[in-house]
Amino acid sequence: MSAVGHGAAVRIKACGKTFADGTRALDPATLDIARGETLVLLGPSGCGKTTMLRIIAGLELPDAGGKVLFDGKDMTSVPIERRNVGMVFQSYALFPNMTVADNIGYGLKIRGVPKAERAACVAELVALTNITGLENRRIEQLSGGQRQRVALARAVAIRPGILLLDEPLTALDAALRDRLRGELNRLLRALGITTIYVTHDQAEAMELGDRIVVMRKGAIAQIGTPREVYFTPQNRFVAEFIGAANIIEAPLQNGSLVMPGGQLRIGDDVTMPATIAMIRPETIQVVDAGQGSLSGLVDSVSFTGDRQRLVVSGASSRPLNVDASNAIRVKAGDRVGLSIAPEAVRLLPLES
Ligand SMILES: Nc1ncnc2c1ncn2[C@@H]1O[C@H](COP(=O)(O)OP(=O)(O)O)[C@@H](O)[C@H]1O
Ligand SMILES: [Mg+2]
Predict the structure, then answer these.
(1) Candidate of 21, 23, 61, 199 to mutate for ligand 1, largest count of ligand atoms within 8 Å of Cβ
(2) Ligand 1 neighbour 46 (Cβ under 6 A)
């Protein structure tokens, strides 16, 4: 994790948004973002991520009662050009007829930064974003990945207090997206700028976020570090949106979940009456038939390269996804035992 400074760089207080046509895009949300932190807003399309980002940027006013503070200062009605934010969007929004260097230096030029100083800053950012040699090309001569590097360099050239990114990698193909994600991660750590990053891609959120805000239908479903939202989701939505999850409905008796394939011990002190349980596929161990707490039948085995994914029926009310090592020899039709540690079972509230 990066060094995160003290105090909230950005504070969002009770910011909700209802658009003029009556669409409720955001329930009143309260959130602190620490100096130097990368906070990711993660959720499916339409859940209010962009609306939240636009409120922080000053492109949208929150509903009455909502406040946006930067370093404790009320910015709610300060326009975007006086908020010192850098922005990068899914569409590059670059000036197509200008060169790469002129695009990157544009914000500095309109701020009256002298030419020599501007050139030095552009050179530094060109190197940092891996586009050396492209300085004099025009934007229309660049690939998507190169354009997004330019957009990023341009956004950070003005040394913004806050960097706002809205799905910057979404328009790129999968291989390039993976590579740029890694580069972006190193860049954000190197710059140490307070960053708010919007994505619907959980892999991006996990890699880039110091913390992740999981959003659903205009509301915050959970806020936590990548590990917290993965290992201790607070509800079914978060459990299923991040990573793979087996959701199990089974009665709890004397500290065990009573399931078709056996009794799964989860601990004596567990007394939640009506719950569902979540088990990650990689926490289930495949053992010999007759061993382990559950018994099931292998429905299918799919080889995924680094591991194999089994679907096992009969153990739970619904087939279980199990991620097993390649070293285990199993085939469809085999009876297997399943061993699951009590701490791998996460009890979740029933849906309201
Ligand atoms: N200007 C607008 N007027 C009316 N509805 C809007 C407007 N902008 C966004 N919305 C609606 O608000 C909801 C949240 O949108 P948005 O914040 O763009 O979601 P996300 O970025 O998570 O995909 C959606 O239902 C969207 O259709
Ligand atoms: Mg959006």
Answers:
(1) 23
(2) yes
Are residues 25 and 18 in contact, defined by beta-carbon separation less than 8 angstroms?
Answer: yes
Q: Where are the chain's structural domains?
A: 8-241, 246-349
Nearest CA to ligand 1 atom 1: 19
Residue 67 CA to residue 77 CA, distance in Å, equals 9
Cβ contact 85:57 at 8 Å:
yes
| CATH homologous superfamily for the domain 8-241 | P-loop containing nucleotide triphosphate hydrolases (3.40.50.300)
pLDDT band per the 50, 70, 90 thresholds, residue 1: very low
Estimate to the nearest angstrom the gap between the alpha carbon of 157 and the chain centroid.
25
- By the 8 A CB rule, do 181 and 149 touch? no
Rounded average pLDDT over 294-306: 95
CB atoms within 10 A of CB 175: 9
SS3 of 333, please? coil
What is 246-349's CATH number? 2.40.50.140
* pLDDT value of residue 173: 86
Among the listed residues 112, 347, 104, 156, the one whose alpha carbon sits nearest the alpha carbon of residue 245: 347
Tens digits of per-residue pLDDT, 272-294?
665 789 999 999 999 999 999 99
- Asked if residue 72 lies in contact with residue 106, where contact means CB atoms within 8 angstroms, the answer is no
Nearest CA to ligand 1 atom 3: 19
Range name among 80-84, 149-153, 272-276 with the lowest pLDDT average = 272-276
In tens, the pLDDT along 39-61 reads: 999 999 999 999 999 999 999 99
Nearest ligand to the C-alpha atom of residue 44: 1
Residue nearest to atom 27 of ligand 1 (CA): 46
pLDDT tens-digit series, residues 221-248: 999 999 999 999 999 999 999 999 999 9
